[in-house]
Amino acid sequence: MNKIAIMGAMPEEIAPILEIVGEYKTTEYAGNVYYEANYKGTDLVVAHSKIGKVFSTLTASSMIQHFGCNKLLFSGVAGGINPSLKIGDLIVATKLSQHDLDITAFGHPMGFVPGGSVFVEADKGLIALSKEVAQELGKTVQEGIIATGDQFVHNQSIKDEIVKNFNADALEMEGGSVAVVCDALNVPFFILRAISDTADTDASFSFDEFMESSAVISAEFVMKMVDKIVSPLNNTK
Ligand code: 4EZ
Q1: 13 Cβ inside 6 Å of ligand 1
Q2: What is the pLDDT of residues 107-162, one digit of tens each?
Q3: Roughly what angle, to the nearest 10 degrees, separates helices 53-61 and 175-184?
Q4: Is 197 a catalytic residue?
């Protein structure tokens, strides 16, 4: 039986999801609010973690280990790096890295620590499902690499560095840490982001203008995926 975690980082990233879900029970746990619902016969747990790798790690772990979720979908916004990604465009992470994890002083590549790996791959089944959904909606979703770090990037030289190290297409502040948690706990995960800015000098202005509309684009798409997962016709349970 599925129990699906749907998370975002900011309240704006999950508000459209809660609106679609409609009725839910609210539980406080470990400094966050968790919204539990039965949606079309399947249990969901929805939460926003707060921004950054540490808070998102706590929330992903809680959703899996405390609430018992066995699939995790992340919805939110990101800064675009690949010039083909425009404001409002959707990117599905194929793999994610932590762009600020740095023990290069010891000869290790950026994003690597012993026992870990530079990249963590997202679930191929959920990526395939997103392609089906995109096709049915007549929408385009681009697959790509997402780099995660504890900073809001608004600087071309940092972007260049992240491209050089990870060949990333977009960047944000939670996906890479959620990926590590899900991978370690063997929970299939999916990270979707809609572009809110292009992580350069005017990023904060662009973010303020577009984060809400882009968050809605991402959230509505994720809920279409949830519709497929909970559908009695779906056999990938
Ligand atoms: C983090 N999220 C931004 C949170 C910003 C301001 C109050 C996504 C994101 C992002 N992260 C959108 N654009 C970004 C950028 N340029 N750098 C990092 O996940 C909170």
Answers
A1: no
A2: 999 999 999 999 999 999 999 999 999 999 999 999 999 999 999 999 999 999 99
A3: 30
A4: yes
What are the structural domain ranges in the chain?
Answer: 3-230
Q: What b/e string do you get for 192-229 counting C-beta neighbours within 10 Å, with b at 16 or more?
A: bbbbbbbbbeebeebbeebbeebbbbbbbbbbbbbebb
CATH 3.40.50.1580 correct for 3-230: yes
Testing ligand 1's pocket by substitution, the residue of 10, 172, 178 carrying the most ligand atoms inside 8 A of its CB is 172
CA atoms within 13 A on the CB side of 1: 6
Question: Across the strands, what pairs with 194?
Answer: 77, 90
pTM above 0.90, yes or no: yes
